[in-house]
Amino acid sequence: MKEIVLSEEQQSACDSLYNEYDSPFPSVSLLYGVTGSGKTSVFIKLIEKVIDDGKGIIVMVPEISLTPQFVSQFAKRFGDKIAVFHSALSLGERLDEYKRVKQGLAQIVIGTRSAVFAPFDKVGLIIMDEEQEYSYKSESSPRYHAREIAKFRCSYNNALLVLSSATPSIETYYYAQTGRYSLNTLSARYGKAVLPEVVVADMGKELKNGNTSGFSDVLLQNIAYNIEHKKQSILLLNRRGYNTFVTCRACGEAVTCPNCSISLTYHSANNRLMCHYCGYSVPYTDECPVCHSHRLTFGGTGTQRAEKDISDIFPEARILRMDTDATSSKSSYEKMISAFADGEYDILVGTQMVAKGLNFPNVTLVGVLNADHMLYADDYRSYERSFSLLTQVVGRSGRGNDKGMAVIQTFTPENLIISMASRQDYNTFYSNEIKVRKAMLYPPFADICLVGFVSQNREAAFKGARKFLELFTEEAKKNYPNMPLRILGPTPALVVKISNKYRFKIIIKCKNNSEFRALLSKILCEFGKSKEFSGVTAYADMNALVC
Fold this sequence. Notes:
It is built from 15 helices and 22 strands. With 547 residues, it is α/β, with parallel strands linked by helices. The relative contact order is 0.11.
């Protein structure tokens, strides 16, 4: 077993984290390091120092696709002391892992957000890698954020919580800057690796020059170079399917899901139009369901289309596509990652699951095929998400001995988020974003509570939301006159209909304390007793994913 040798900066961070772990008080620390700085090596060294204390250790990753590499690295050091928790396991496998932890046969749990509930009697250390990722937040009941559960468990057990990222969430970095969390920084890549050169390709100019392939000239040239020189490339396109929508040239209508207010996506593998929300699918025909003309046309590009297009340009290339369609079978993540790591493929095309945490030393080129669509989502976190995703995927390049390159394709090359991500300039991004958060009273300066209303009847859902707002404001004015609140809504949800159920929301900017929770609980209970709205489900979600 090869010994891990830490750099001076890594060793300093490891020693600092161990001192916090060894203190009699619970604490939270941010390990902030550029992509490729060796944060995983710090985790392993820290665990080696604390494992003999007999306390439980939890290591969380945001995506199932990251667990195979983590498990492989940790298994080499800790053998059968490891248990794995994630949703791809069968019920029997989950039960077996649960029992191993409960019986003390496993001391380290590695997994996604559900790993935070590992049944240790005494927790000593919890590590959250890529802590900024919103996959740590559960969108279904029970609605929780793994980070908040981790904080509670560490506080209860006088344990250490390590939050790790190259692009920390705005809230986490703010708390680290203001002293609520401690901060350990890794400012350089480990060993001889250096940050990649980043090229921003203006796709508007590419079109003017007659390039309609969807791939910029600079990207194609570097893919060709990599294929010739036996190097690997990763292409990110955060849309699965073949075409992302189908429209009619006669009436202009998009083909939408009958159960959801969302357009259907064309999948070439089975020649079907599919809904990515409810799973509805129908065989593709060229007849418009609205005007019955035969003038349907495809629009948008998904990973299936990108895979075909790049294979047409480079027929000799070995191409692997990695998205939720391609990884639906058991162990498919692990098999794909192992095959790519072993050099069986030249190009990896995928959604955001290929952008974070993965370490492939032979990857010297990363291409972001469409950086624009992620920038303008209906959410105050859209810039944070975009900056994080771009920074993370750029960081997959040049992690070995060869210098890497990243190509970001965009129609808005002047966008500041793209510019800052290309420079890996988190500090400037944070400085700009924290000012906006403060001015608009967004987290970390306030909590945001989303109260959702769901019903099979659209009018009932809207009336329920209005009634709840009336009850809430009356109670707040009467019994909580000094509570600071800002209330927005009711408004339709971003996707107003899913699975034939209509959704409305109220947004409350608040302070998530016991007083606010008592007020909210009282009104939810009162609303739930109303016979008039028996067909409306109301729920509260603190700091929800989409507001």
